Backbone:
């Protein structure tokens, strides 16, 4: 499940539980405790199994408990007054509801990027090429960074001169989780469309900004020109995959931005 699904889905569960417990005649205090605790405990179990990060867990717990608290305060005020709820508390509920939606959206965009269909509407390049819009961490803008850009452009030029045909399968269907095993296959052909054998093929998985890196994955040759391997991705969200191919004394590097959902 995505962050938006767990965040707003859990909030809806808090509201429904609070209403059902009220219909059952439970005291308002225990309505707030139970309606806030059940989704929080349920998500905690899911987060442990899914390997969610602490900042994502914190926003879920805060939203669930805040929702339960606000509902209990409003129910108590209404019961004590015996009249229809004043417009001011209603305005506060709407305000904090909108604030929750906006904050949740910001967190989702920062961790997973803008959804592809939204990116295609506001980013012209996204219509034909994958565009990563999530937060990539701190990026250097000094002479070393400029040198890296120049080296990357030179690599692209060298790759075009070689004329290698690289076909990668499995990156579009990646799943995260300790039990999810992702099978990856790469097919390599030369300029004459002949299979290239005895190549050294390595895949490097890391978070944008190099904030989290996985051990390199070596793809082994099976059929002529076909290399395969498997990997487990520990967390959901945006990852960068760096493909390194060494063959015939030449070296080619490619990077792909991928979004990995839960298994």
Residues:
């Amino acid at each position: 499940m995505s962050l938006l699904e767990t965040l707003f889905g859990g909030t809806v569960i808090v509201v429904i539980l609070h209403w059902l417990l009220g219909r059952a005649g439970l005291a308002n205090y225990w309505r707030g405790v139970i309606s806030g605790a059940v989704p929080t405990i349920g998500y905690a179990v899911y987060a442990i199994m899914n390997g969610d990060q602490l900042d994502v867990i914190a926003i879920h717990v805060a939203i669930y408990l805040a929702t339960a608290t606000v509902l209990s305060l409003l129910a108590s005020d209404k019961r004590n007054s015996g009249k229809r709820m004043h417009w001011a508390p209603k305005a506060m509920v709407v305000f904090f509801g909108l604030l929750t939606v906006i904050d949740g959206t910001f967190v989702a965009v920062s961790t997973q990027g803008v959804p592809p269909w939204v990116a295609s509407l506001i980013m012209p390049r996204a219509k034909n090429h994958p565009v990563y819009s999530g937060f990539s961490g701190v990026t250097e803008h000094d002479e070393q960074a400029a040198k890296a850009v120049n080296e990357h452009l030179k690599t692209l030029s060298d790759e075009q001169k070689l004329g290698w045909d690289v076909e990668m399968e499995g990156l579009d269907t990646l799943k995260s989780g300790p039990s999810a095993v992702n099978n990856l296959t790469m097919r390599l052909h030369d300029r004459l469309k002949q299979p290239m054998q005895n190549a050294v093929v390595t895949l490097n998985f890391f978070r944008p900004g190099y904030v989290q890196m996985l051990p390199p994955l070596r793809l082994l040759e099976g059929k002529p020109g076909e290399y395969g391997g498997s990997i487990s991705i520990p967390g959901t969200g945006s990852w960068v995959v760096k493909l390194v191919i060494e063959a015939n004394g030449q070296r080619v590097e490619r990077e792909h931005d991928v979004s990995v959902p839960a298994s």
